[in-house]
User: Fold this.
Amino acid sequence: MRRCVACRQLCDRRQLWRVIHLAGGGVALDRGMGRSAYLCPSPACLQEARRRRRLQRALRCPVEDSLLDQLEQRLLAGAAADSPH
Assistant:
């Protein structure tokens, strides 16, 4: 079980996005060794994390806007896959 940094809800870690502060420096998604923060794959949690800098605080390092944009693209891709054609 892991806690979302935005809404603070406990969830199975497979249901959350993992953001990692890599031991060698930098930030990555999903894989790697280092300090991790978890985020619900929801627009509200992503917006809250961006607005209040929750990932930066949890990881204790700067998080580029490009990484947050990648997470937003995942949301959009997931929404497009869920919508009926």
In short: The longest strand covers residues 17-22.
